[in-house]
Amino acid sequence: MATNHDADKLVSMSVETEQLSAQVLIVDDEVGHADVMAEALQRLSHVCTIVHDLPGALDELKHGTFDVIVTDLVMDHEDDGLEVLKAAQNTQPNAETVMVTAHGDVATAKAALRGGAYDFIEKPLDLDVFRNLVNRAAQTVLLKSENTALQQQMDDRYGIDGIIGNSPAMRQVLATIHQVAPSNIPVLVTGESGTGKELVARAIHNHSPRQKKAFKPLNCAGLSSSILESELFGHVKGAFTGAERDREGVFEFADGGTLFLNEIGDMPMEMQAKLLRVLESGEFVRVGSNDPRHADVRLVSATNHDLEKLQADGTFRQDLFFRIRGAHIHLPPLRNRREDISPIVRHYIAQFAHQLNREPVTITDEAMMPLMQYDWPGNVRQLINVMQNTVLACDGDTIEPRHIPVEIRQADDATESGSVGDLAGVNLQQIEKQAIRNTLRMTGGNREQAANLLGIGERTLYRKLKEYGLK
Q1: Which phi and psi (to 5°) does residue 452 adopt?
Q2: Mean pLDDT score across all residues of the chain
Q3: Residue 124 and residue 103: Cα distance in Å, rounded?
Q4: pLDDT digits (tens, 9 = 90+) for 36-46
Q5: Domain locations in the chain?
Q6: Which region among 102-106, 265-269, 407-411 has the lowest average model confidence (pLDDT)?
Q7: Prior bond to 333 cis, omega within 30?
Q8: Does CATH number 3.30.9.100 belong to domain 165-332?
Q9: pLDDT for the residue 109
Q10: What would the pLDDT profile of 12-35 be if each residue is shown by its tens digit?
Q11: What architecture is domain 336-468?
Q12: What is the 3-state secondary structure (H, E, C) of the chain?
């Protein structure tokens, strides 16, 4: 067994690895052996907690926070070390576990590696090797933490109020929101259903000087002129059958704040004229009243229609179009910004797992692939609903292809099979080049993920990028 003299010798040796201060849990039923390991690590600024049995380890893992767990493989029982590993994975998901084993237990230690252990080291310990092993494990934990923090910074940079995206189109959307939010200019938001038009309107309000006042949405689709007029301007008691009391409309409710008129392209022509007068004068009249009222609102409108086409068809007023289109934000469909699918998926996986009081849930590249290749006719709204159901269906901590709804997986298969004929006679290098380009686009330029999806190593991918002149 190693001695304290070995630990003293260890400290005097030069070290190439970076010195870190990590929280280390040492689990070993041999008191002297545990003390030697702790002293070797403590002199390098690591903070060590020592326990000598499985129950003690389980208690520490439940109530403490550790970066590295060092555990003997065999203690009172042959599988005690594996139980420590299992508990560490459940309670300390960001930590790394190092197994200490006798020579005869190397096969079991290798099985532990397959089960998620960071590495193992044999007795009698070479303290220099041991110290460097723990330092590498601590460095891995630090890098994971830094990556998590970096991802949070990316979310902060490229996400506003639930709007997630790092594609060029979404960066332009976010930049425009920041640009127009401080003003009172009216904004028209266009895009297919489910692309997040109300999220954009709320973000504009939340980053404007009106943020402490009301944000009031109203969907104009399917409302008759009479109902829409009452919703917009309010009514007085007795104005029509069922009007049993005075009621304010959304203009009054949003006074000083922001009014969001969704699906404005479905507004009847009669109401378009009345809305235009209010926008020009700031003055309106409740239904059944002659008394003018005033409201100061910032208008954000949205539609999934082509308003210029509606003007040509005579179903939308040109003067109203010019009034509501002070600034224009177009939200592209999700199928045209596939590189945003992965961050959206991971964001909502984390959110739904938290809402369900689940341990952190991850997703495999194989499960991500059909999600990134699906066309998402319902856009982000559909993707969010699918991810909520997928997290519910996941029976572990990892989403695999079998958890993805069958209609999405079948659509992926149909896409693959339907494209074979289009590739006939095409140069193989061109196919490979296009596959690499498309995969990098889908992963937002993430080379590691792209390489995994393509089934090649990162070095191979890097070589092919240079070969094909891709950046």
Answers
A1: -60, -45
A2: 86
A3: 9
A4: 999 999 888 89
A5: 4-152, 165-332, 336-468
A6: 102-106
A7: no
A8: no
A9: 81
A10: 333 333 456 889 999 999 999 999
A11: Orthogonal Bundle (1.10)
A12: CCCHHHHHHHHHCCCCCCCCCCEEEEECCCHHHHHHHHHHHHCCCCEEEEECCHHHHHHHHHHCCCCEEEEECCCCCCCHHHHHHHHHHHHCCCCEEEEEECHHHHHHHHHHHHCCCCEEEECCCCHHHHHHHHHHHHHHHHHHHHHHHHHHHHHHHHEECCEECCCHHHHHHHHHHHHHCCCCCCEEEEECCCCCHHHHHHHHHHCCCCCCCCEEEEECCCCCHHHHHHHHHCECCCCCCCCCCCECCHHHHCCCCEEEEECHHHCCHHHHHHHHHHHHHCEEECECCCCEEECCCEEEEEECCCHHHHHHHCCCCHHHHHHHCCEEEEECCHHHCHHHHHHHHHHHHHHHHHHCCCCCCEECHHHHHHHHHCCCCCHHHHHHHHHHHHHHHCCCCEECHHHCCHHHHHHHHHHHHHCHHHHCCCCHHHHHHHHHHHHHHHCCCCHHHHHHHHCCCHHHHHHHHHHHCCC
pLDDT tens for 279-299 read 999 999 999 999 999 999 999
pLDDT in tens, 411-443: 755 554 444 445 556 677 777 887 888 788 777
pLDDT of residue 152: 55
Instruction: Give the separation between CA 287 and CA 323, rounded to whole angstroms.
Output: 24
- Report yes or no: 20 and 37 within 8 Å, Cβ to Cβ: no
What does the pLDDT read at residue 153?
57
Whether domain 4-152 has CATH 2.40.50.140: the reply is no
Work out the average pLDDT over 343-363.
91
